[in-house]
Every structure is written in structure tokens, then in C-alpha cells.
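Data card: per-record layout.
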Amino acid sequence: MITVESKYSNASIGNDIKILQEIHLKTKNIAIYQRQMELSEKEVAQAVKQTIDFRANGKKEEITASLCNYFANVIPKQNALLEDILDLFELFIQVTKISSFRIILASVDDNMCPRFHTDNNQLRMLCTYVGPGTLWLPDCAVDRKAYMSGKRNQDIVLDESFIQQVETGNVAILKGGLYPESTPLLHRSPLIEKRKEKRLLLRIDSNEFLNLNNDTVNNT
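The structure for this 220-residue chain is written out next.
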């Protein structure tokens, strides 16, 4: 039995990896697996010193081969990081039950997407290996009319004290606007430019329609 720690109805949060399957529940638009990373701080710190920009799309075999080739040629001796990414990729495959994906592993030193927004996809997995994690909103703190009309964060967020953040190393799966019969999650990147911070971010997106069958959590 999974213990859900979140006090917000749209989020499932816990330290059991099975928590990620709850993203398929109709009332949930974010699931967060709180984990203890088995990567050494030294290894991850070395990786983020380099400019990393890996992007690929396609099926599991294609992406895996491209990712291993990138690590071998650009960031060698980062075997633990590579293994963790491959494990998370396999986990995302198990949750989504699809066969086509888009993946990005990048070092980031800008604010990326500073406005709270939803993604134009079905599901996205995020893991920030270094630096601050993604900010997200409980549904109770969102003015969706303000968001849809293009207004600023100050208008979208009903109460700034409700803004939540995925902790570094934790694994989050977010619902986007294409997930059937669900409300997409509003989220944004942390503001790091002025603080001259750097992030190492893994992003995996679904690239086809989900196979929602009896093996997933009931979607009602």
C-alpha cells in the first residue's frame, strides 16, 4: 500500500516507486517519487561542469544507442549517471506503455520557461540531477482563466505560498494537455540566471498516444 504524503488532491507523492503509476488517476496531474539517488555527488558535479546537450527521439532501442554513444564520446566515465538515466527511461516506458519518446539531457544556466504553463503532450518525466527542481501548482492555487488569457504569473497564482517544488534528484511525471479527460499540470522552471546557478535536467516526453489498459491504475 502506497502512503500518499501530499496534502493537495492533484498530486501523488511518496517514497515507493509505484507512486508514479498513480499519474493515471483522473484526479492526479503530477506524481512524484521521492528517492535517494545512488549517484555520488562528485560524479554528478563533474558532469555538470561540462556543457551537456543531448536530444533524441524515437523508439527505446534508438534512444538507448544514441544516449550510450553520447556518454562514451562527450561525458565518459559517467557510468552511474548513464545507468540511472536508462533506469528512469525504462520506468517511464513501464508507466506510459508506449514505444516512441523524446528525450533531453541538458545543462541549463538560464530561466528556460519562467511562466507557469502546461505542456503540449500527454506525459513528461522530469529529474533535476543538479540545481533546483521544477516548480508546480496545486489545482487549488490556479486561476486557469488568467492562464488561458495569457496573463502573468502574478495573476495565474492565487497564493504564492502554495507554489511547490520538486526536490533535486526526485522523479516527477506530469500530465500535459493531450492526456485524455484530465486537467494538465501548471508548472515552470526555477529562476536561476541572477543567482548564476546551473542545472542538469533530464526530460522524457511521450511521443505517441498512451495505451491505457487494465495494467495501469484505474482512470476513474
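Known properties of this structure: Confidence is low (pLDDT under 50) at residues 214-220. The longest helix spans residues 79-96.

See the next section for split statistics.
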